[in-house]
Amino acid sequence: MKKLALELHVKHKTDLAVYNHTLARILVEYASAVYMSDLTELFTWTCERCDGLTKGFEVIELVVDVQNCLQAFVGVAKDLNATVIAFRGTQEHSIQNWVEDLFWKQLDLNYPGMPDAMVHHGFYTAYHNTTIRHGILNAVKKAKEFYGDLDIMVTGHSMGGAMASFCALDLTVNHEANNVQVMTFGQPRIGNAVFASYYSQYVPNTFRVTNDHDIVPHLPPYYTYFPKKTYHHFPTEVWLYSVGLGSLVYKVEKVCDDSGEDPTCSRSVTGNSITDHLNYFGVDLMCEQWRSCRIVMEPSLAAYGTTDHKGNFILSRDPSTLAMKMNIQSNEGGDTFSA
To answer: What GO molecular function terms would the record report (predicted)?
Structure first.
């Protein structure tokens, strides 16, 4: 363990996951949809962002932690043959304030069971110590009971990406899931190099998509001269950047090395853009309006909900009804997408 604790770069993986552009375009739409505040439309998958590449998705559980302004959903995507988990990103009155706070955030929590691994207390707590974790694990268990061992795809944007990463590690280490894939967008750093090394061993099928000069993947800062004590990304980054001039500009997707901190990827530019943070692949990754936590829900949804004494609630449906519907659709034929 001591050797691992001193390691500054994650180990090379013998069975490298392959980045899939089509899958990225699908998962970014799930990461966008989870921002919707109309819970009726989100739960029934009829919202304006619940179409396109995610059409036909069936939500099993929608978890809303009102106390901490957090939101996530779990459901089944027939075209992916997978359970999809999506976490909402930063829902702050001012994202600028949140970004400024990250500049000064120090490593402040020892990750349980991983010697010398340290993580960001706030991101860890948002997943582990709120309503979110219980609701997610319950829904994943339901999905497995009815659909078997489907792939589990976990996604999120910004802070949602941080929560997605902790969720994937939790599912793998504590709940023996062996088919977990992660793809996040504009994710901040969440731990040190030792944590990154552990993470890459347990969840190797992970891609962090970063967009051009997006400021958030540069935070909390990586200090080159203090590599043992600084925050450190885990692999694998996929950097989206523009090349060309004038009307000939086009986007390139570069799959970076397995260090987590490839100096030729997003670290090669100044992370100074909030605009680049809020739109990936032409998809908006933010709420309809930036404001304090707000939800809209029709009274009829109360029949699907349970609420705790703090006002946090979970909307849940029996996946057996979804299974029947999907079996009927499957018998009708049609192509499927295999990631």
So the answer is: hydrolase activity
